[in-house]
Design brief:
Its main location: other. The protein is an alpha+beta fold and 696 residues long. It has helices at 3-13, 19-29, 33-60, 62-115, 117-132, 235-262, 295-304, 307-310, 312-321, 325-339, 346-370, 384-392, 396-417, 424-449, 457-479, 486-500, 511-542, 554-567, 586-604, 611-635, 639-668, 673-681, and strands spanning 135-136, 149-158, 165-174, 177-188, 191-200, 205-209, 218-223, 226-231, 549-550, 581-582. The longest helix is centred in the first third of the chain and has 54 residues, at 62-115.
């Protein structure tokens, strides 16, 4: 770099550099434009050089940048771990503090009881009495001597199946029982609660429900065969309930044990040992008496006392409460695998009976998950979790039934929510797309979920046909009940058939079901359109003058030729004359166009069940035109008009009817004998123009 560039760089890098003053001085010292341009080029070259150096430094230190980013990421994770450790230590310190406070509180209470035992007992009973006065139906609770209040508070009860709030309750924990009272909506004086239930402390178990939003601060009380779930106001109150319930249950158990020990049982009589080797002991085969169990039974007792087996019922309750269905079924599979190797004893039966109650609860929750009352969003995949667990529980038939009911409700809801906006064709496209796409997704999900249960596939086929009826009801209501034209109906039926063909990619062909459900409406549409054509033909026949058709312009003649060529009448040009005249009557031309259009639309709608309907409709339409020509020939006296009528009759017999027969055979695949017989029976006969006989 030159010396000028070095000075410029030092000037720009100096901390006291001010751009405005620099530009002002530069303008004063410059002789003209040229100096400023040169200076600008120097600054620009300096900027380019700086950018190039910066880029080189970035490339040079690229690896250092990556390593620095990694170090920052490591530092971030370590800071997160440190924060987590501090949070855990804080919670541990709080729990230790609360434990120490509760211990001091218990010691103080015990000292008070030791110092003033009678006064303390009376105070507890007075407190319980004053509280129970607020409970409707709770006066008899104090009849038990020695009963006093330990703890009480407000709770919210939740439904065990769907975890929705049921009611607000007030719980009274006494030294030997637990009272549940519901809040009265209409309070009467001092009475605030109503008696709901009373449970002995040794008749239920308390299970902690792990926090899993929105289920927080909950615990479950298990009373065979039922259970109840309550929610505390916060985690602190929940912890107090769990600790005090556990401690009260232990105190009652200890007290009962001491009471039993005070009553010394009489020593059992010594059994006489028999020396007869041939004498059998009647009690050797008993399974109910644990004292008579052999070494193998003793081993079973030890095996059934494993920690995970003892905690299995509670673990299942926790899994069901937290909606961990997979974990619950895994535990059941583990238990079944373990018990499979053991003989069936009374203890095994008791364990299975306890587990069966949890299986019933789990099944009810899974059934609720698949019920149509639940949200139907998410498509078929949203049901996979519940379906797979029901199948693992050995209830594939119920899973299949519930899955199909859920999908039927989803399809019905989607069809109902579809609004008619704009053209009906757009609605039909949306309807077909929603229905057949849902059917295809359901079929794929069904095949995935029930791959090992081939017996359920017949149920899916039956369900597909029933849902097809739902689709046809909505489809026919828009297509046929709205009195649309036959061409429009044919186009929409074609759209439905094309969408139905999508199901063949999974081996499901419902085309026959679609056609059989539409046959009644299509038959009615064909007959209705046939009646319209006959009425229009009769109306034109009543105004027939038997004159040549004048289209006024060559363009109109060319358009008519194209229309006839499109209908299959390729020899129509021989009936056109010079200029704009057509050597046929307007009635015959209009009839030909209308009948060929009816034939084309009918072939679009055709399937075997409509064969005779379409044939008879064509025959009736043709007979109307033929009978009119025959009647006109019999009644007409003018030789020129009679010759013109014969020309129109020849056009119908020799040109139009063969085209109809050929096109029908191409569309259906077999000849139409009825149309051939009709053409033969209406063969025109060349006769004397003076005669009134025209056709056989």
């Amino acid at each position: 770099m030159s010396e000028t560039g070095s000075r410029l760089r030092k000037l720009l890098e100096s901390p006291n550099f001010e751009p405005q003053n620099y530009v002002k001085q530069l303008s004063q010292l410059s002789d003209g434009d040229r100096d400023l341009q040169e200076h600008r080029q120097k600054v620009q070259s300096l900027a380019d050089e700086t950018a190039q150096n910066l880029k080189k430094n970035v490339y040079k230190n690229y690896r250092q940048f990556i390593e620095t980013a990694k170090e920052i990421s490591y530092l971030e994770s370590e800071m997160y771990q440190l924060s987590h450790i501090l949070t855990e230590q804080k919670s541990i310190m709080e729990s230790i503090t609360q434990a120490l406070l509760s211990t001091d509180k218990d010691e103080t209470s015990k000292e008070m009881q030791a110092a003033f035992p009678k006064e303390t007992e009376e105070l507890k009973q007075r407190t319980l009495t004053s509280l129970l006065e607020k409970v409707e139906g709770g006066k008899n609770i104090m009849d038990t001597p020695g009963r006093h209040l330990v703890y009480n508070g407000d709770l919210v009860e939740f439904d065990v199946d769907n975890m929705s709030p049921v009611q607000k309750v007030h719980a009274f924990l006494m030294n030997d029982c637990l009272l549940i009272a519901t809040w009265l909506p209409n309070r009467r004086g001092a009475v605030k609660y109503k008696y709901n239930a009373l449970y002995e402390l040794d008749s239920f178990a308390v299970v902690n429900v792990k926090d899993n939003a929105p289920m927080k601060d909950m615990f479950k009380i298990l009373m065979f065969p039922d259970s109840r779930i309550f929610q505390a106001e916060n985690s602190k109150i929940k912890k107090e309930w769990l600790e005090i319930l556990d401690e009260t249950k232990k105190n009652k158990a200890t007290k009962d044990r001491h009471s039993k020990e005070e009553v010394a049982p009489a020593p059992p009589a010594r059994a006489e040992v028999s020396t007869n080797p041939f004498e059998q002991d009647d009690d050797d085969g008993g399974d109910d008496d644990d004292d008579n169990e052999g070494p193998a039974d003793a081993k079973e007792r030890v095996d059934l006392s494993l920690e995970w087996i003892q905690e299995l019922p509670e673990d299942l309750d926790v899994c069901i409460a937290q909606r961990d269905f997979e974990g619950a079924v895994d535990l059941l599979d583990k238990l079944n695998e373990y018990l499979k190797e053991l003989p069936v004893t009374q203890r095994v039966k008791a364990l299975r009976a306890t587990v069966e109650e949890r299986v019933r609860q789990l099944t009810e929750v899974l059934v609720f998950e698949l019920s149509p009352d639940r949200s139907l969003r998410g498509g078929p995949k949203a049901t996979r979790r519940a379906v797979s667990q029901l199948i693992r529980l050995g209830q594939s038939t119920k899973a299949c039934e519930l899955f199909l009911k859920n999908r039927a409700a989803a399809v019905q809801t989607a069809i109902r929510q579809l609004r008619i906006e704009g053209a009906t064709l757009l609605y039909i496209h949306k309807l077909c797309n929603i229905f057949f796409t849902s059917l295809l997704e359901t079929a794929k999900e069904f095949e995935m979920d029930f791959a090992g249960n081939t017996g359920c596939y017949s149920a899916f086929v039956v369900w597909s046909k029933s849902t097809m009826r739902m689709f046809v009801d909505a489809f026919s209501k828009q297509v046929f009940d709205s009195k649309e034209s036959l061409s429009t109906a044919a186009e929409w039926v074609k759209v439905a058939k094309e969408h139905c063909q999508q199901l063949t990619e999974i081996g499901l062909d419902l085309t026959f079901s679609l056609q059989s459900l539409l046959v009644k409406d299509i038959k009615a549409a064909l007959q209705s359109y046939k009646d319209i054509i006959i009425e229009a033909t009769k109306h034109r026949n009543s105004e027939e003058m038997w004159r040549r058709l004048n289209l006024m312009t060559p363009e109109a003649v060319a358009k008519l030729k194209d229309e006839m060529r499109g209908c299959g009448v390729g020899s129509f040009e021989q009936f056109t004359g010079d200029d704009c005249w057509v050597n046929l009557s307007y009635t015959v031309v209009a009839f030909t166009k209308q009948m060929m259009s009816f034939l084309e639309e009918g072939l679009k709608l055709y399937f075997p069940e409509l064969h005779m309907v379409l044939l008879e409709s064509l025959r009736e339409i043709i007979l109307v035109a033929v009978q009119h020509v025959d009647y006109s020939l019999r009644c007409e006296q003018d030789p020129e008009k009679k010759a013109f009528i014969v020309l129109n009759a020849a056009f119908l017999h020799d040109t139009v009817l063969p085209v109809v027969e050929r096109r029908f055979e191409e569309g259906v695949g077999k000849p139409a004998k009825q149309l051939q017989d009709l053409r033969k029976s209406t063969r025109p006969v060349r006769v004397n123009p003076e005669s009134t006989t025209s056709m056989v």
